[in-house]
Design a protein that fits this description.
Layout lengths: L39 E3 L34 E2 L13 E3 L11 E11 L4 E10 L5 E7 L5 E3 L11 E4 L13 E8 L12 E8 L7 E8 L5 E4 L23 E9 L2 E10 L4 E9 L6 E7 L11 E9 L6 E9 L2 E9 L7 E2 L19 E9 L7 E8 L5 E8 L7 E3 L6
Antiparallel strand pairs: 1-4, 2-7, 3-23, 4-5, 5-6, 6-7, 6-8, 9-10, 10-11, 11-12, 13-14, 14-15, 15-16, 17-18, 18-19, 19-20, 21-22, 22-23, 23-24
Length: 427
C-alpha cells in the first residue's frame, strides 16, 4: 500500500485516529476538498531540526525500548486563534501552549496528515514542543487543518491529544536529550514484512553529552499516540551513524523524512552540516525494510552566493505529486542570518534536483514585529484535492524574542513557486 495513493485501502486500526472529534463544517478561503466513499490517506511531511543493503526479512516488534507510561490524561483544549485582521497573526494557526502545559515554551516541526471519510475530513499534526530544556512530541487534531484541538498533558486513550513521546530514559541512547518528529508513515505488508505497528514515526533524537549531537530514530504505534522505540543497528539505538571523518555528514544527521517509492524501496531524506564547505546539505539513503539503510550521498547543496539559501539547505520534506509522479521537496534555506523556505523538484527523487523559482516561496514577515518576523523553516507540504487543486504549506515561524509558532500558507493554484499566508475563513 502506498501512503500517498488515494486508491488504496487503509488498515482497519487506522480509523482510531479518525474517531471522537466533534464535527465542524466550515467553508474556508481558497481551499476546496472532497469526500470520497472510503477513508483515504494523504501524506505530507517533514521537518525538523534547528542548526544543530537491507533485506525484507525483518519482522520488528513494538516491545523494543517502549516509552515510559504517561500517567496523566489531558482534556482537549482549542489552540489559540488570533484575529486574521491583525498583522501579528497573519498565517498563524497554532500558538504556544497554555501556562504549565508541556509545550508552553517552544513548538515547531509540524508533521501534518489529512484523512478523508464518507462525510467528514480529519487532520492530525505531530509536532515538537517543550516546557523545559528537552523537546518532546505531541499530537493535535482538527477537522479542517486550521483550528486545532490540543492537550496540555500526556495522552491516555486512542482518541486523546497531547504529549505522546518524550526523551529516552536509557543512559546509552542517542535521544536522551530530546526528540523531534520528522515523518509518520503508514506501513503494511505490501510495503515491508511486518506483523506489528501500523504507524512508523521517524524522528530526530538529540544527545548533548557526546558527539554526534543528533541521529535518526524509529518508533512504532498502533494508534498514533502510544509509541514504542525500535532499536536500530547503531550502538545507541539510532538507525544511522554519521559519516567517517572528512565525509559531508560527519557531524550529525537530522530530519530523517521517509518516502515510500515502491515495494522494497523506501527513501530517507536528511540533512547535515559539511564542515569542509561550511554549508548545510541534504542527503539520501535507501532501504528495503524501513529500518536498515544505505547512504547514497548528497542530493541538494547550498545555492550560489547571494541566494536565499547560500548558507545551505536543511529540514527537507519530500512527497510525490499525485498528478505527474514527480518528487517535490520543500526545505529550509539559510542565507546569512535569514531563514526562509524554498522548493525543488526531481523526476525520480534520487538525482537532478532543480530549484523551483528564483527565490524563496515563503520568507519572514518583514516589519511590525509579527509572529514570524525573524524567520521561517521546518516546512511540511500537503497536496490538496478537489475542484481547485492546491498545496498547503505548514511551517515553523520565529518572532521577536525567539517565540515560535506554527503557520500555514497556501499555493496559488497548483503552482509551487507562489504561496500566500492564510488570512482567515469566509463567514
Amino acid at each position: 500500500m502506498e501512503a500517498t495513493a488515494a486508491s488504496h485501502h487503509i488498515p482497519t486500526n487506522l480509523t482510531t485516529l479518525t474517531a471522537k472529534l466533534p464535527p465542524k463544517k466550515t467553508q474556508f478561503l481558497n481551499f476546496t476538498s472532497c469526500s470520497p466513499k472510503k477513508i483515504t490517506l494523504f501524506c505530507s511531511t517533514k521537518p525538523n531540526t534547528n542548526n544543530q543493503e537491507a533485506t525484507d526479512e525483518t519482522n520488528p516488534t513494538s516491545d523494543s525500548h517502549p516509552n515510559s507510561t504517561i500517567q496523566s490524561k489531558s482534556a482537549p483544549i482549542p489552540s489559540l486563534q488570533l484575529s486574521s485582521s491583525s498583522s501579528f497573526s497573519r498565517g498563524l494557526i497554532f500558538d504556544l501552549g497554555v501556562k504549565n502545559s508541556w509545550d508552553n515554551l517552544e513548538i515547531g516541526s509540524p508533521v501534518v496528515k489529512r484523512y478523508l471519510g464518507d462525510e467528514e475530513e480529519r487532520w492530525y499534526m505531530w509536532y515538537h514542543g517543550r516546557c523545559s530544556e528537552l523537546d518532546s512530541v505531541g499530537l493535535a487534531a482538527s477537522s479542517n487543518g486550521i483550528h486545532w484541538e490540543r492537550g496540555a498533558e500526556g495522552v491516555r486513550s486512542n482518541a486523546d491529544v497531547g504529549l505522546v513521546m518524550s526523551n529516552s530514559k536509557d543512559w546509552w541512547a542517542f535521544d536522551t536529550h530530546g526528540v523531534r518528529p520528522c515523518e509518520v508513515v503508514v506501513m503494511s505488508s505490501a510495503k515491508v514484512r511486518t506483523n506489528s505497528a501500523v504507524y512508523w514515526l521517524y524522528y530526530t533524537g538529540f544527545c548533548s553529552t557526546d558527539s554526534p549531537k543528533s541521529l535518526p530514530g524509529l518508533a512504532m504505534s498502533q494508534d498514533g499516540r502510544h509509541w514504542a522505540r525500535i532499536e536500530g543497528e547503531h550502538h545507541s539505538g539510532a538507525l544511522l551513524d554519521v559519516g567517517a571523518k572528512g565525509e559531508w555528514d560527519s557531524t550529525f544527521i537530522a530530519s530523517p523524512q521517509v518516502v515510500f517509492h515502491g515495494s522494497g524501496d523506501l527513501r530517507m531524506y536528511y540533512h547535515s552540516f559539511d564542515v569542509e564547505t561550511g554549508r548545510y546539505a541534504v542527503g539520501i539513503a535507501r532501504s528495503r525494510d524501513g529500518m536498515r539503510w544505505m547512504k547514497l550521498g548528497r542530493i541538494l547543496s547550498a545555492g550560489p552566493n547571494g541566494a536565499f539559501d547560500e548558507g545551505g539547505v536543511l529540514n527537507p520534506h519530500v512527497l510525490r505529486d499525485r498528478r505527474d509522479g514527480k518528487y517535490v521537496m520543500v526545505y529550509e534555506g539559510v542565507g546569512g542570518e535569514r531563514r526562509s523556505i524554498g522548493v525543488a523538484e526531481s523526476l525520480d527523487g534520487l538525482k537532478e534536483w532543480r530549484r523551483v523559482g528564483e527565490g524563496p516561496v515563503i520568507e519572514e514577515e518583514c516589519g511590525g514585529g509579527g509572529w514570524d518576523s525573524e524567520g521561517v523553516g521546518s516546512p511540511c507540504l500537503v497536496q490538496m484535492d478537489g475542484e481547485a487543486e492546491q498545496w498547503r504549506l505548514y511551517y515553523t515561524g520565529v518572532g521577536r524574542g525567539g517565540k515560535t509558532g506554527i503557520g500555514l500558507a497556501v499555493s496559488q493554484g497548483t503552482q509551487l513557486d507562489k504561496f500566500q499566508r492564510w488570512t482567515g475563513f469566509i463567514l
